[in-house]
Amino acid sequence: MAQPFIHNNKTGLTRDLIEAMFPMFEQASAGAIAVDRDCRIIWLNHTYAALLGVDNPEAVIGQPIQPVIPKTRMPEVIATGRPLLLDIMEYGDQQLVVTRLPYFDDAGQVIGAVAFVLYDDLQPLTPLVSKYRRLHQDLVAARKALACKTRSTRYSLGDFVGATPAALEVKRRARLAAGRDMPVLILGETGTGKEVLAQAIHSVSPRSDKPFVGVNLAAVPENLLEAEFFGVAPGAYTGADKRTREGKFQLANGGTLFLDEVGDMPLTLQAKLLRALQEGEVEPLGSNRVQSVNVRVIAATSRNLETMMADGSFRSDLYYRLNVLEIGIPPLRERLPDLGILCEAILEDICQGLDMRGEITDTGVAALSSYDWPGNIRELRNVLERALTMDEESGTLDADAIFRVLPRQGSGSRRVERCGAGRPLAEVLAAAEAEAIESALVACRGNRSRAAQQLGISRSALYEKLAKLS
Ligand SMILES: Nc1ncnc2c1ncn2[C@@H]1O[C@H](COP(=O)(O)OP(=O)(O)OP(=O)(O)O)[C@@H](O)[C@H]1O
Ligand SMILES: [Mg+2]
């Protein structure tokens, strides 16, 4: 076997040491390769050739390395003169752990580089790999959070899963809405995917590179809503910030403003919102100057706005302003044939980045169809998450696994199961709280105002708790 670079210039101790260690490395590794300063292959051992599926190693001598090993980072080593001591390189469907070292002439110039494949199987590195996976998972979560912070969207139209005619009609209308810069009103029970759809419309609209700003009318205390919407001028009131505080309208300028739970908007603000929409101008609190804004509004609610108009709690002029294109998302119980693909998508999402599997059998899906889903897709996700936690070993959910966690209205069996002995008090209390909130929402068919009333807490406290739960 030729070892061209080792035999030249045996001058210093380092070179001798390298020479002494090289055969050992070469033998112990799963492959070795060397390139010259132009990144042309000058040597390739037989084990690496076999790993790469190169039948005739001689044929690649003198060839540039990149076409042979597309993801190689040898050019970087040559360019910087710095080793890459540990790296995971993909080759086809293999992941190779490699180390790459430059080598120099007597004048200290890089004249080439050598690389060893330390492992061609990640098994011995399991602890390292699981740490890597955990970090990767953290990265995915951090990116998601960052995406929210930078006011971009998490969902696109593909995330609205469904193939029944009803679901396809929703998507058709969403696409239509995306193409036209008109106000959209999304109606649907709790957990049907109103937010998913609003984000999806924005992300396929021409405003997609501009901000998507959501405001949940039910979650913000009434006395803060105006400032939240229109912003605050410096020193507008005692204790106000010295700087201008932008409102959601200003933040959404150029993009989309999502008015979530618009049915919960107090009448006084309805009038101001209507004016802002009609005139395209807003007036920050404590300022006497108007600012022009250009936003597309998408509103959503689970309440019946027509009844609210009839009893005077929702302005009809605002309703017609918001409802230029209406999209009604049907409840899950009216599109049960979508359960199969919904489960598939949700299980994949749950398992993504985690070292676990999640599948559901046909009988599992049939079991899900026996339920009436007052909490819709959010509830479906919770049920699947719970079922997977209890069945983590197999990761396959059959009818039994589903029935074990499916709520049975009026029965307290689940409570007994979840508040089992031997768990820390804080955990038991949190589980009991989640259970009480869920039952109240189910009893009130997802109407949060009524659920909050039933639970004896404020609506914003309920929202805070729900945000922690989701
Ligand atoms: N069509 C869908 N396909 C896949 N997942 C969905 C779909 N619709 C909703 N989901 C999931 O269900 C959950 C609830 O969705 P979302 O928050 O959009 O509902 P919502 O209608 O805004 O509910 P609420 O009225 O309670 O605010 C989310 O986890 C979302 O990812
Ligand atoms: Mg919502």
Can you walk me through this structure?
The chain is α/β, with parallel strands linked by helices. It folds into three domains: 4-121, PAS domain (Beta-Lactamase), CATH 3.30.450.20; 157-330, Rossmann fold; 342-469, no CATH class. Helix content is 46%, strand content 15%. The chain contains 22 helices and 14 strands. It has helices at 4-7, 13-28, 46-52, 57-60, 65-68, 74-80, 126-149, 165-179, 194-203, 225-230, 248-251, 267-279, 305-310, 316-322, 339-351, 362-369, 376-390, 399-405, 413-418, 425-443, 448-455, 459-469; strands at 32-36, 41-44, 84-91, 94-104, 110-119, 184-187, 212-216, 256-260, 281-282, 291-292, 296-301, 325-328, 359-360, 396-397. Helix 17 packs across helix 18 (399-405) and helix 21 (448-455) crosses helix 22 (459-469). The termini are far apart. The relative contact order is 0.08. Residues 1-13 and 410-419 have low confidence and may be disordered. The chain binds adenosine-5'-triphosphate and magnesium ion. Magnesium ion (MG) binds at residues 194-195, 260.
Strand content: 5-15%
Rg, Cα atoms, Å: 31 Å
CATH architecture descriptor of the largest domain = 3-Layer(aba) Sandwich
Distance between the terminal alpha carbons, to the nearest Å?
62 Å
CATH class membership of the largest domain? Alpha Beta
Low-confidence stretches: 1-13, 410-419
Number of strands: 14
For the sheet with most strands, the description reads: 5 strands, antiparallel
Give the ligands present.
adenosine-5'-triphosphate, magnesium ion
Total domain count: 3
General shape: globular
- Mean pLDDT over the residues: 85
The CATH superfamily name of the largest domain is: P-loop containing nucleotide triphosphate hydrolases
Count of helices?
A: 22
Helical content, roughly? 40-55%
CATH topology tier name of the largest domain:
Rossmann fold
